[in-house]
Amino acid sequence: MWTDDTGEHTTVIDGRQLVGSAARSGIVIQDGTVSRLHAEFEARRDGLWVRDLGSRNGTYVEGLQVSGARVPDHGKVRLGAVELVVDYEAEPRKAVPVWREARFGRLVGTSLAMRELFAALARISPLDAPVLIQGETGTGKELVAQAIHDASTRAGKPFVVVDCAALPENLLDAELFGHAQGAFSGATTARAGAVELADGGTVFLDEIGELPISMQPKLLRVLESKTVRRLGETTQRQADVRFISSTHRDLLTMVSAGEFREDLYFRLAALPISVPALRDRREDIELLVNHFLEQSKSPGSADPELLRELLGRPWRGNVRELRNFVERARALGADQALAMSEPTRQRPPVDAVAASEPTSGTTPSKLVTADEKVFDQKYRDFRDAWLDLGEREYVQRLLARHERNVSAAARAAEIHRTYIYRLIRKHEI
Ligand SMILES: Nc1ncnc2c1ncn2[C@@H]1O[C@H](COP(=O)(O)OP(=O)(O)OP(=O)(O)O)[C@@H](O)[C@H]1O
After folding, report:
1. CATH fold for domain 103-274
2. What's the pTM value of the predicted model, to 2 decimals?
3. Residue 302, ligand 1, Cβ within 6 A
4. Is residue 242 in contact with ligand 1, taking CB distance under 6 Å?
5. For residue 156, what are the β-bridge partners?
6. What is the ipTM of this complex?
7. Where is the Sigma-54 factor interaction domain (predicted)?
8. Which terminus of the chain has fewer Cβ atoms in its 10 Å neighbourhood, N or C?
9. By the 8 A CB rule, do 132 and 245 touch?
10. Which CATH fold topology does 2-86 show?
């Protein structure tokens, strides 16, 4: 409950709700001290949480300024000069639908959080509105996007991925919208962009938070007009696509700070989805390990002792880090793989390579109950794993030497900047 310039109000908070003076906020508070996008409320299992979005006059819970905090029952939240009183009992919590199976498309997960997500995906897939998928790196956002496409009426039509972080601005523009012949140096032939190529299907905009601000109006126009204009052309072409975007960044805070356009945000986030971090759904670890083993056609399942060890790890790189772990464990043995995925990541893998050189080369893999030996595998798998190990070490050292300045590192290594970004993501560095 709160009072603003227009009187007294009450509302029920269900899921996430934006609060601010902007008309598009879920909870609109008309008061000069409240920012356009001031804060976000989230009703979680353990109570109501509030998160400040970089507001001008701050968010306070029980008198203390917070960036994010749980609001107790009957607690007071102050946004600028407006006070809201929270009452947990106002409305009984609605039951959240849960998916019955431990998989959706190519996603697997048995935790309540994932099965709630699967139920939400089943609900939103057939709708044609844009989806925004938020979640930490490696949580499975791209797989979620693919699953939505596959469960939509657009399944069977193209699913085109554009990584907004991988390309410099002019190339990204051409990649998305296409270009005419001679539109820029190097454009020797005319080319259709992702939006045209996906006709009838879905465009997945990965890392949308990296979309340069100068390109944002153009994307907004495509969303609004459902037409696209190639770089260097004047004709508009029909664009029958659904947009799904993803980001590991806090897009709302970026909007609040003027780094991302508010109108584009609301267009893209018509259906917002969050993928939980792996550490918040550790029940999925065993299923995922077995899933990755199955994918790699290894017999057996995860060793219980190893699983206990895995359950205690932080998994900052989320499911991707776990998948990489399983791959390394198959090829290098569980001990070596565990050493490489130490939370601090300080241990240099090259030393580790030296330490376990072939002389000690019988490290048994604990990952597979069939007691697979590191050297008892196909040459190719063995070689790929060790090359991977060396590559990771190379990039780590390269970046450290250049204080993580990717452009300088790219020059020194004589490879393209975008390739370095790819390697950083591949190895979770
Ligand atoms: N629930 C899941 N079930 C099966 N595999 C998964 C699941 N989640 C993620 N993966 C696998 O983990 C890896 C990383 O997933 P994905 O690339 O979708 O993550 P992401 O969130 O898009 O990462 P980034 O933020 O770096 O773009 C992929 O190999 C994907 O197949």
Report:
1. Rossmann fold (3.40.50)
2. 0.79
3. no
4. no
5. none
6. 0.98
7. 107-331
8. N
9. yes
10. Tumour Suppressor Smad4 (2.60.200)
